[in-house]
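The aim of this short unit is practical: by the end, you should be able to scan a pair of folded records and say something sensible about each. We start with the first protein, listed as its amino acid sequence and then its structure tokens.
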Amino acid sequence: MSAWFHRPKYTIIRNVEKKETKIPEGMWVKCDRCDSIILTKELADNLNVCPKCGLHKRVTAKDRVAMLVDEGTFNIMFEDVQPVDYLNFPQYKDKLEKSKKATGLSESVITGTGKMNGLEVALGVTDFLFMGGSLGSVMGERLTSLCETAISNKLPVIIVSASGGGARMHEGIISLMQMAKISAALSRVSDAGLPFISVMTDPTGGGVTASFAMLGDLNVAEPEALIMFAGPRVIEQTIRQKLPEGFQRSEFLLEHGMIDIITERKDMKNTIHSALSKLMDSKRYSGRKIS
């Protein structure tokens, strides 16, 4: 065999510097329904609605206020009303502190006045992240005071509900009383010739659904929001039957006459403003005197 077939063996060693690419934590988020991977910023820019499947993810009360009220016009009110552990309920104080740290809120509702496309309104927004958005004495007092402020200043009332926690058991009968208290305050708003628009988001349940959430002159909901008194699992376990597809979702309630309109989040501000403009100009409201 020729010599040129017997080449010496050798090994080439290349020193390649490895560079680690670090992806910032929280840069991406996975949609709970369609499993799409979405940039967190893209999701935030789309008002926390999945751009692929349209799932309306839950948002905080602070974000909701920013979506509905003209920038720089919101005047938060009644923050001095704070929860009290009337019953010395086990771990209640700890749960309150945990919720305060997690949300930056002092309670499960934000109330105040602001402008919506230039129209001044009285706005209350509940937050599911604060003990399930549960209805307690503070929510009752703040929303009642909001109604009284609206009457004094001739403002329409808007309450956005994200309360799946129902009446707060940690406050016992004091919590249940708030259902009647807020409902009575809204009745006075109506007597004063002022409109009330209720906006229901995912989830709205329990004592909130059974009282003020369903009392709007216009009841509005986001797409596919769970709106109920008792949850579907509780009902199925009780009646031992499978519930219809979409039961207790916005679309089901609209079909059965429980709500008036379903509006996507991006259209919510303009929809409410348009409705209020018509209601404030109608004989039903403008014909009454504010006492």
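Turning to the second protein, read its sequence before its tokens, just as you did above.
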Amino acid sequence: MADTIPSVSTDQVQALVELARAGSLRAAAAGLHITEQGLRNRLVALEAHLKVSLYHKQRGPRRRSPLTPQGEQFLPRAQSFLEGARRLVAPDGATGPQEVHVAATQYLTLYALLDSIRRFHRAHPEIRVRLSSRTERDIEDALLRDPDLAFGVAAPYEGVSGLEYRHLFSFDWGLIAPPGHALLKMRAPDLADLVGAPLIVFERGSSGRQHVLNAFHKRGLTPRIDMEATTTGIVVKMVEAGLGVSLVPLTPNGAVTRGVKVGVRKLAPGVIEPIHSGILIRRGEAPPPAAEAFIRFLTPAA
């Protein structure tokens, strides 16, 4: 007699894989264009067929993964199941358009990648880049859990085992202030000139904040921190509103302050350690050819 095979559907399995990728029921439901209740129904049906709990039902402290240990164990098989289903229904020899899933920080998304992706699509119309904007830590976590993510573009958060880093960019720091501010009259402002000025810095725990505070502390200086923000874009808008001055990493193309009414003065090289950013990939795993094509496109000319 033939072995009994659990009656699971691709929709049910896809619900689990999307939950693992997106990190929450709300985000997963949005990614699949269904309601949260519809997503739950698929997950409950999958759990009933497999007779195991696959995801956390109760809200509580933020977890590294929405999946239970049993769900994490099942995830690689679920991903293989979906890939097999795609190959099963694809016509012989048909490949269709290639897609590269990339995750990047908000800073690099806004000021480096959007224009690069637009130019890459013109140069390689057969390859589409699917971009997700995430924090450094979320990018590293996703790379270790989601094989669909080809690579990340970020500043290395901490030395995470299982990932390799390829350097791409280094961004030097500059002072931004409201137009007419006294600091803008200086050709090369020093950190000592900023002591006492209302300073807007990045949020606690961010590498950018640590770079700035380390530079002050090495000089024995204590800055006056008035406000904090999560992104460079918000910091720049705060300065434009006259709420203070700030130190931010600047791109060579001036995109950080383009279209915003603020003044800019570059700091002397080395005053604040540059922000280094690049490619994060899984150790020992070569990105697929389409992803490598995009990486080569991002790599600055020597």
